[in-house]
Amino acid sequence: MARGEDRHDHSRPRPEGRLASLKAALGSTKTRAFLRLLTSVGATRTQETLRLLPFVVMALVALIDFGSGPTSGLLPLLALGPAFASVACGLARTTVSGLIALALCVALGVYNDILWTPRTNITMAAILGVTVASVLASAGRLRHERQLADVRSVAEAAQRVLLRPVPRRAGPGIGVAVSYTSATAEARIGGDLYEVVTTPHGVRIIVGDVQGKGLEAVETAAVVLGAFREAAHDEAKLQGVVARLENALSRELSGEQFVTAVLAEITDLTDLGEAQEGTSITVINCGHPPPMVLAADGSRSFADPPDEALPLGMASLKGAEAVPYQIGFEPGDQVLFYTDGVIEARDGTGRFYPLADRAHLLNGSDPQLALDALRADLLRHVGKPLNDDAAMLLLRHRAARPLASSAA
């Protein structure tokens, strides 16, 4: 593939290049631990603030009413205490806040000499009703949170089992780095997948994205990874691996479900007896964003497939078959595989993540640290939890160029 700068902007999704119907990272241990610490500290502070809010509100209402006298009419605002408590507090704290509100109402009624008047009686009845409703709402919220936590824990455990740690090296001089960032909105555990397998036919790689979210997407990802791990060893050609994946998915998928994927094979041309020497990457793209190639001279390009092919699982539509093509992979070169959760990530103004413009972040000496830097930049660009899973896999050719032999 010809080197050089990309001639069109690949930093945003290209609908014409893909079907129109078509977001816990695996970085370094220290980075993951630090991010978990920051997240837990922020969540703890927010929870503590919400838990104190009901009592702060009731104290303010009581103080203002105590100072202004019976004409202020602020007693009904004491019902805000149990109402706010139902948002973040448990059953006991919500009940206690309701009892405190009722006690304050009685005490202020006695102080202002308006106890058992119609207005005070209505206020006490309102506080009692709001407290009962708040306790019921808190019970429902806690039950929903437990169910959601169970679903997320099962899905995340399944993903950790499926997405096994990849080797840091894929042959002599080939470094590998991987990053995975899960979408955190509710239970939206996605189906992004990746794998690196060393086989007798070379090092084979898959990066893919399952349509949909949740446990169904994780189950489909398990089918794809299981079929790939087996077929990568059995099939001599990369096209055979794709055919095996299609067969496996045809027995599992239904309706309009599909999986976009890019498969790659690192090949030493010298070992194959080719006329030229060096390393090449054979790629088959099944409806997936093209890999980004970073050449040793600093240029970048996107390895677009020669022909558009349908995603995996859509063979029944009789579309064009995926055609393998070559990517040069010389010392100093890098190839980044990624899912659409990366290029479709938007900031607050709706601007897509400019992946091509941030390619310089991958120039660090350590591939994993460089990929971690790119992931951190992605999260800064979005400024909030991702809406879709984002997986990235980086290959770096670290071997030194052979020295030319001196003339005799």
UniProtKB/TrEMBL annotation:
Catalytic class of the enzyme: hydrolase
This protein's record includes keyword Transmembrane: yes
Molecular function via GO: protein serine/threonine phosphatase activity
Coiled-coil positions: none
Residue ranges constituting the PPM-type phosphatase domain according to the UniProt record: 174-397
Keywords: Hydrolase, Membrane, Transmembrane, Transmembrane helix
Pfam assignment, any one: SpoIIE
Enzyme Commission no: 3.1.3.16
UniProt xrefs under InterPro entries: Bact_Sigma-Reg, PPM-type-like_dom_sf, PPM-type_phosphatase-like_dom
Transmembrane segments: 50-68, 99-116, 122-142
Protein name: PP2C family protein-serine/threonine phosphatase
